[in-house]
Amino acid sequence: MRCPVTLRRSPGRRPSRAGRSEEASVHDNGPTHRLSSRSAAEGDPTGRFERLYAEAARGAAEVPWDRDAPHSLLAEWTARTRPDGSGRRAVVVGCGFGRDAEHLAALGFATVAFDIAPTAVREARRRHAGSPVRYETADLLDPPADWLGAFDLVLESMNVQALPVELRERAIPAVGRLVAPGGTLLVIAAGRRDGTQVDGPPWPLTRAEIDAFAAGPLAPADVAEIVAPDGGLRWRAEFHRAR
């Protein structure tokens, strides 16, 4: 059963390190699209992430989602809900360079942040030397066994939408399996209407795909459909697991 949709307006665009806006980067298919095509042809749809980060490390590419601040929809959510991370664990899926992980750590969460791209993890550690965040290289589809059901807050922000459909169908329930009893899953994603075709990556998520995160013991608490300044859709969906 769907929970009610809340229509909201998002705030103004946040400039990125490379001068791109947060909203624009959602659909930026430049270097990532080229690298994705190469990886898909080689049967390695997630390999494009390491290729992009490696090229960026050599100065041959830019990472479109590289920004100095946490995602604005995460920052708004934490400002409104004021979560107390004391004595609680958080995990950031597909952490990239760590902007969201550092935000959660600042709220007191013992934070693990992982990415499938080793170069991204190395750069996150370099940028945040001395950080309490534990940055790890890991695969969402095959996480360490002790991560299952271990985190009070799980953040999935703009990652699942970058996967082709056959991997999205596996990744969506995999995210939920990280949530501890009594914990929260927060999903942030670009959105699209049912029946709308896109030439990804990324493939913005439909409402049905957002609803699919409520698998197993997870139940929807708040699903916000946000109309961005460019007219595009964004999702911010909160799910809770019973104790």
From TrEMBL:
CDD domains linked to this entry: AdoMet_MTases
- Lineage of the species this protein comes from: Bacteria, Bacillati, Actinomycetota, Actinomycetes, Micromonosporales
Q: What is this protein called?
A: Methyltransferase domain-containing protein
Q: Where is this region: Disordered?
A: 1-46
Q: Does the keyword Methyltransferase apply?
A: yes
Which UniProt key words apply to this protein?
Methyltransferase, S-adenosyl-L-methionine, Transferase
> What GO molecular-function term can you cite, just one?
methyltransferase activity
Has UniProt tagged this entry with the keyword Methyltransferase? Answer: yes
